[in-house]
# Entry
Amino acid sequence: MDSRITEHAKILVDYSCEIQEGDHVVVVVEDYGQELAKEIVKLVAQRGGTTVVIQRPPEMERALLDAAPDEYVDRFPDHLFAMIEKTDAYIKIQSTGNTRALGNASSEKLVKYQLMQKPLKEEILKRKWCGTLFPTNALAQEAGMSLSEYEDFVYRATLRDWEKEAQIMYKVKEIIDKGKDVVIEGEDTELTMSIEGRVAVASVGKHNMPSGEVYTAPVDDSTNGHIYFDIPLVYLGSLIEDVRLMLKDGVIVESSASKNEELLKTLIETDGGSRRLGELGIGTNRGIDRFTQNILFDEKIGDTIHLALGNAYKECNGVNESAIHIDIVKSMKNGKILVDGDILQKNGKWCWEL
Amino acid sequence: MDSRITEHAKILVDYSCEIQEGDHVVVVVEDYGQELAKEIVKLVAQRGGTTVVIQRPPEMERALLDAAPDEYVDRFPDHLFAMIEKTDAYIKIQSTGNTRALGNASSEKLVKYQLMQKPLKEEILKRKWCGTLFPTNALAQEAGMSLSEYEDFVYRATLRDWEKEAQIMYKVKEIIDKGKDVVIEGEDTELTMSIEGRVAVASVGKHNMPSGEVYTAPVDDSTNGHIYFDIPLVYLGSLIEDVRLMLKDGVIVESSASKNEELLKTLIETDGGSRRLGELGIGTNRGIDRFTQNILFDEKIGDTIHLALGNAYKECNGVNESAIHIDIVKSMKNGKILVDGDILQKNGKWCWEL
# Structure
């Protein structure tokens, strides 16, 4: 077995979830990832906890969606909920054998099925929880790599000194928390926004592994200017490329894309909140050096920023509300992030690296 | 996908577990069997139920046993117990990738781990439950067949008209329930026992799939004579061949085997109850025509009987108590089963077939 799987499990058990004696753990795998689950089971047992492994391949969920009559598709699994209520830590491992398994499912049923799961998800968020990924051929294919290359990519992003990574994120958070105005400058980009009264969250690897982002929410009505996103946006398997947005007093007034522009416009028109920004995020994971069509990784690419259309996070004191939250990522290798007029990052270097 | 998997799932969902609207189901797979689990998930969704699939490969349990310190190995999974309490039907699918995965585990830890699971098992037995098997290479290897041959074997035993099979078992049960004395005659065999006051159970496929046996418990002190078992006994991976027993007033007074005789004698000497018989079973599944080292199948081979050393089942009004319950199977193709002097079966034909 690849020894990196053991290292990955150690990070999840000891750093992300801080498993203690007596903890009851649930691990969810999709198609693969059993080796990682096994290593987690071992470590949890060593720490004095117990583990239940649930297997939920997207192909199985698709079969359920196709088979269930409309009136049964949102049946709530009371037994699973009862287990989650007694769970201390929940680890979800992306490990699909086919990233398109749910692609052609009935969207009506999918929406019903996802709404049904809301109380489950809320219960999970009350516990220690972490989303992670086990490299599979399907995910490598989505990323445009061989499996070996992709394994190297995933473990380079994941097997990091997270205490050290966290220190960088806390530094960025401190600057943002103190700041009032942010300016993003770059290719075809000049965007200003207020972050006064907002709180930045350092995503140091407790809930996502890999992690590496600091995010906050712009003040409503405050964003002005234009921005060009050189990294594609993936929405349910569709690539939207070369997104350009123009904002006036917090509202998107113009938008374009070189590919799938119609889809972009439809997303922006979802509801009142989807015309506004819900998030400003700064990617800090320099182990992630390329776009792989997987938002767990893409939004954390080192030296990038991302803006989200739609819903803002309450933990940032964000107020914008929307049914959508869609991240769009931009490289900052040739650009600047300014906070209250001072450089936070320039051409991919933090102010303290310049 | 092999369409027999769908038929298998239908039997489990509609016949064995009689899944109703609102039922919450737990399916446990080992290494494989995901195709069968998927078909169960589909059918349960169609009936208006929900399903959680747990994956528990023996290799993962072995890793746990090896990793857990002694004081942690019997930690009780409260969260799993909470789920079982809310579960209506529990389906366990044998589907291992290695039948020897637990073979060299610490037997002390294994005993602790199994004792820990007792309340879980008791909770499962209060619900609808069924044990079944998905053919894997490991199980085929254990049975001495290619995977294709083994698949044919498993589905020939499983995809039967269970209503019709049940009618045969109920006929046998009726004869046994009315009877007082049983005589088993055959090669090197002449055994008599009383079954007065005992109840026969027809195992018609509600808890085992495949099923096909009628079993009861002999009256203590009543068994006399000698018996030769032509089908090997498998105990934790060891084959005990050509078992011969001599009984006097219910107690085994002589025993021999052509292979692993010492192990046989050790088993018989486990405790007071292990020197007596806990069960007389009659295999009725003519889809099972050979020994495959798997007791789910072996004890149901058509036209066989089996006796168990040790513990008797309460549902038969059995009283013998022991830590062990070990079935030993004998072909009755050249023999007779007599109840109160009347032939129940002769040379592999029921009395109504003669």
